[in-house]
Write a structure and sequence with these properties.
Helix content is 79%, strand content 0%. It is mostly helical. The longest helix has 37 residues, at 86-122. It starts with a helix and ends with a helix.
Length: 124
């Protein structure tokens, strides 16, 4: 049995966590933990909500996959980074990965906000 109060609290929590990650310099480990939490919550909602309109909204919540977000760059800039040292290129890749992940997190936060609004009406 789904507990409306608990689900809404978790949806608010994931939005607060997203805000925290966006506003401060989050580590990749923190982003990875957020991705797991968001995925688990999304999965739970998909399995327990029966309203098709809300399910469509939940299905639009992005899944943050850090492996997919870490495409190997090509071109002159990447070659230059490799030339100047592995540590510099590793740092640049990590920053790129974090930046791309934070863009997805912004979208996740927005989708959960919409989902929260819909579920408040659904649980009435």
């Amino acid at each position: 049995m789904i507990q409306p109060r608990n689900i809404l609290r978790q949806i608010v929590d994931v939005q607060v966590q997203a805000d925290r990650l966006i506003k401060r310099k989050a580590t990749l480990n923190e982003i990875e933990d957020f991705a797991k939490y968001s995925f688990e919550l999304r999965t739970y909602l998909m399995e327990n909500i029966e309203n098709d309109f809300i399910l469509k909204q939940i299905n639009e919540i992005p899944i943050l996959n850090l492996e997919k977000e870490n495409k190997v760059p090509e071109g002159f800039l990447y070659s230059l980074l490799l030339f100047f040292g592995g540590w510099l290129s590793a740092y640049a890749l990590e920053q790129k990965k974090k930046s791309e992940a934070l863009e997805v997190i912004r979208d996740i936060r927005a989708k959960y906000a919409s989902t929260e609004f819909m579920l408040k009406n659904y649980f009435r």
